[in-house]
Amino acid sequence: MKTINIAIDGPAGAGKSSVAREVASQLGFVYVDTGALYRAIALFSADYPTTKAFLDDLEVSCHLELKYFAGTQCIFLNGDNVTDKIRTPEISMKASEVSALPKVREFLLETQKDIAKEYNVIMDGRDIGTVVLPDADLKIYLTASAEERASRRYLELEDKPDAPSYEQLLEEIQQRDYNDIHRAVSPLHRAKDAVIIDTTNMGFHEVCEEILNLAEKRLELE
């Protein structure tokens, strides 16, 4: 039986993960946060002195698992739950770097494809609709202005110790955008058949509702 796949792409901080998670929950689909996979590899790479040493050891020593607890995705690196450890600005920037490496993308590509073959999924990332799931039943390109994305991230982190400033977050987001768009392998860009949703002036539930409506119309879901 053919599975149903929904691909959500877009720049860092556009709300892809939170929106995809909520829509997947409402549709009864499996949510796959591909960004978490790259973040976990970034965390794995931090123990290596050089990129070459990390890549040489990747297939042998890096074991990733996605597990779901009460509908929430958790990522395990070599048996350890690193779901919280990978959500730091440092790991975010490192993830942008490692995601540009062909060997890393090849390492994760088949894993992502296999999940989509087995389950009805909503998968979000940078190249889901263009590379990972080019035949996805519905493709969304979720975006927002860099200023709005930095503001959202600032509100998430402002109460934490050593929280970065808005200006720092804006600079990091702009740098990540540049890195993702200009990388040689699988750069960030909108699939030709993707629906663009600009969330700059939209609320969370409004975005979710729009995607749910698209899914119902395009996929004839009941």
Describe this structure in words.
- 50% of the residues lie in helices and 17% in strands.
- The chain is built from nine helices and eight strands.
- The strands form two sheets. A five-stranded parallel β-sheet has the order 2-6-1-7-8, sandwiched between helices. A three-stranded antiparallel β-sheet has the order 3-4-5, with helices on one face.
- A hairpin with a 2-residue loop joins strand 3 (64-69) and strand 4 (72-77).
- Helix 7 crosses helix 8 (166-182).
- 36% of the residues are buried.
Notable features of this structure?
single chain; 222 residues; alpha/beta; five-stranded parallel β-sheet; 9 helices; 50% helix
